[in-house]
Amino acid sequence: MGRDAGISAEKLTALAEYEHHPLFSELERLVLAYADHLARTPVRVPETLFARLRAQLDEAQLVELTSAIAWENYRGRFNRAFAIESDGFSEGAFCVVPVRAPAALPSGDGRPA
């Protein structure tokens, strides 16, 4: 899909380094950071990040972006729950391994937060 949308193989490979890689624009960095925060459990989007997104996107764009990210997270979690694998439609595609998020601090009762 990325290649069909005009994203280069170089950019797809650099995705794990989006925060500092020169191939990504400031808006792309903000959107990817937002997606990273929305994919975490629990979801915590820093106010500064959201404010920076608001400065570049209007309300409708923010709603559409948030909806798309939330939908992809839903699909990914649903598929994992049922061990649904790829149907092979992405033959030869890049699958960048995400950086593991830091473990959540334990809650007051000793369980992970």
What does this structure look like?
By secondary structure, the chain is mostly helical. It has a domain at 24-81. Helix content is 45%, strand content 0%. The protein contains four helices and no strands. It has helices at residues 9-13, 26-38, 47-56, 59-81. Helix 2 packs across helix 3 (47-56). It is globular and about 40 Å long.
Could you give a short description of this structure?
The protein is mostly helical. It has helices spanning 9-13, 26-38, 47-56, 59-81.
Outline the fold blueprint.
Layout: H1 9-13, H2 26-38, H3 47-56, H4 59-81
Could you tell me the number of beta strands? 0
> For the terminal residues, how far apart are their CA atoms?
35 Å
Biggest beta-sheet profile: none
Rg, alpha carbons: 16 Å
Structural class based on helices, strands and sheet pairing: mainly alpha
Query: Beta fraction of the residues?
Result: under 5%
What is the residue-mean pLDDT, rounded to a whole number? 84
What's the helix-strand series? HHHH
Question: What count of helical segments does DSSP give?
Answer: 4
Overall shape: globular
Q: Helix content range of the residues, please?
A: 40-55%
Low-confidence stretches: none
Which key phrases capture this entry?
mainly alpha
